[in-house]
Amino acid sequence: MPTFVQILDFIGTFAFAISGIRLASAKRFDWFGAYVVGLVTAIGGGTIRDLLLGVPVGWMQDPIYLICTGVALLSVILFSKYLVHLHNTFFIFDSIGLALFTVVGVGKSISLGYPFWVAIVMGTMTGAAGGVIRDVLINEIPLIFRKEIYAMACVVGGVIYWICYLAEIDFVVTQLISGAGVFLTRILAVKYHICLPTLKGEAQD
Amino acid sequence: MPTFVQILDFIGTFAFAISGIRLASAKRFDWFGAYVVGLVTAIGGGTIRDLLLGVPVGWMQDPIYLICTGVALLSVILFSKYLVHLHNTFFIFDSIGLALFTVVGVGKSISLGYPFWVAIVMGTMTGAAGGVIRDVLINEIPLIFRKEIYAMACVVGGVIYWICYLAEIDFVVTQLISGAGVFLTRILAVKYHICLPTLKGEAQD
Amino acid sequence: MPTFVQILDFIGTFAFAISGIRLASAKRFDWFGAYVVGLVTAIGGGTIRDLLLGVPVGWMQDPIYLICTGVALLSVILFSKYLVHLHNTFFIFDSIGLALFTVVGVGKSISLGYPFWVAIVMGTMTGAAGGVIRDVLINEIPLIFRKEIYAMACVVGGVIYWICYLAEIDFVVTQLISGAGVFLTRILAVKYHICLPTLKGEAQD
Hints:
The structure is a homotrimer of 205-residue chains. Helix content of chain A is 73%, strand content 0%. Chain A has helices at 4-26, 31-53, 64-83, 87-111, 116-137, 151-166, 171-191. The interface between B and C is medium-sized, with 31 and 30 residues.
């Protein structure tokens, strides 16, 4: 029987893979290209985190991530017409994935003895770096650098994790509150179009 | 005396470097930029593989890859006019490189005790990831995600390796059959314009 | 009290971060996006170097790099109007950073027992790879592959380091001469518009 966290992990991986596959398909990628972009979106953040932390890379321990991306590809191939109407469902799934990946990244870093500022960076990277690599591969400016609050939600969740830890709150409760913090920040940011300020840029020579 | 595999490795590295240098030159890169793009095309896939496998990075053990890329740059500088007519020769060289790099990647992963699904991913990465980084650096959508079967040839070779391994076929024969599988898949795909299906993409919001 | 090298390191990090933040702001990135691009410009080269060398990643040992990038972001937000007039100052700072990062990269590699050709690649990567990742993230062709001598200055500095080492010159003097070599090469290249030759590229099919 898979645990509750494993089910959430599968949902998050699936949602991230779907987002990569759909953006790739909008660029006329073939099935293989779409699969790669979906996979990278789902596992890219965790991979960079594990390389930086110097621990074995997560997706190389369990084929579930490759299988899950395959299921996502199949879903897009078979049901692409209907997926458009599931926009809000995917948004919820994506936000669940973001919350879970962040909490996993923060927790893993702390359990390895890293200080909190490293853990927050790692949590944010786990949640958001896959989407950055996805956008680089489809040759677009990374979405998360310009649109509604996305990666900042991971930072918020990381800071909440820290505060809970300092307040010696129970481990499971800490994870739940932190994950809820990421999820709600993201949902509210999109619902109320909350963006970070933009820099007044001047073109450089 | 270099071994047969070392000669194939040199040919593959040279062909990959030439492909990077020529695409960089089409974008008006200077000599240094072209050298870097050529080098990354040749060693990028193996570098990511070694980082993920947690072993010392291949090109840092032997200067041959840097030298080989230098020879490739010199060739393009001196003979760029004539290289155009060698299109088919380079295609054959590139396919040899793809086959060899795939077999090396699969073999290295297995010898380190990784399961076969990891080995196939690593073989594909060794063969194809360098070309993806090359296209990111020259700011193009990676070619292998949209054109004739390329990285899929690596997957085919990896699966053949697996079957041979399960059938307890001799190690050298396994490598030859697997490499031939990559090479022939690639050659036939280009000759008969075999492409993977493309996803019917709709632009997202 | 911070040492002289720490002060130079802070100046270099600050200058690299500013360059990332300003280019990001020209692309209308939000504050978070600009911070990430600034951070990656400052620490990207060193991060890749440390992963390749198989040692703990530098910026994860000390929060100064994250703080320094935060100060850089704040400076751009508050003083962006005035920064334009400081163009030459930033150019000097950036060249100091380039020189210091190169020397640190070469020195670290040698102290780990790597041969000199690896050390020169690592020094060049420490100095120049951050700028390449920056340009990939803002979806531009990397500047250093096409404009005045930049990464070549790191190679020059690395070779000088090597010659000093062979001549058994004192360690501190070696570092100073090598760093001065990078700095002067860069300054002179920009002052006299010294570029490397460009390849005569033909568009490929």
